[in-house]
Design a protein that fits this description.
Layout: E1 4-9, E2 12-21, E3 26-29, H1 32-36, E4 39-40, E5 46-49, E6 76-78, E7 84-87, E8 94-96, E9 110-112
The chain binds iron/sulfur cluster.
């Protein structure tokens, strides 16, 4: 496994891969996977880029009409030195769907509470 930056949120560890950028001459975080398919913490909280468009559940920290992204929402907790952060809004948490027969939750059957996912 390559190098990663580690962050902690509510006791959960989030690892973000980093790579060497020849142009910048420094290590940078690899956000590509998060842009293709947003990740979640082990408890189902979404890990988002600060520039993600705000969702219908947004509660902006100010009344500035220019506040249109997660980075301006009070539910967003940005990792220090990163463009990634965690949303703590309960309606954005990924929940597992119960199987009608066994009551168990298949790993491949998950849903979120958010209407715009
Ligand atoms: S509630 Fe979460 S997903 Fe919605 S705007 Fe706020 S931080 Fe972003």
């Amino acid at each position: 496994m390559g190098k990663v930056n580690r962050y902690e949120f509510e006791g959960e560890v989030i690892e973000v891969p980093v790579y060497w950028d020849d142009h910048l001459q420094r290590e940078v975080e690899d956000y590509e996977d998060y842009c293709k398919q947003p990740g979640h913490t082990p408890s189902g909280r979404p890990i988002l880029l600060t520039i993600e468009d705000a969702c219908p559940h947004a509660e902006m920290v100010d009344d500035d009409p220019a506040s249109i992204d997660c980075g301006s929402c009070r539910h967003y907790h940005q990792f220090p030195g990163s463009l990634l952060g965690v949303c703590d809004h309960e309606k954005r948490r990924k929940k597992k769907r119960r199987s009608p027969r066994s009551g168990l939750t298949p790993a491949n059957k998950e849903e979120t509470l958010c209407e715009n996912d």
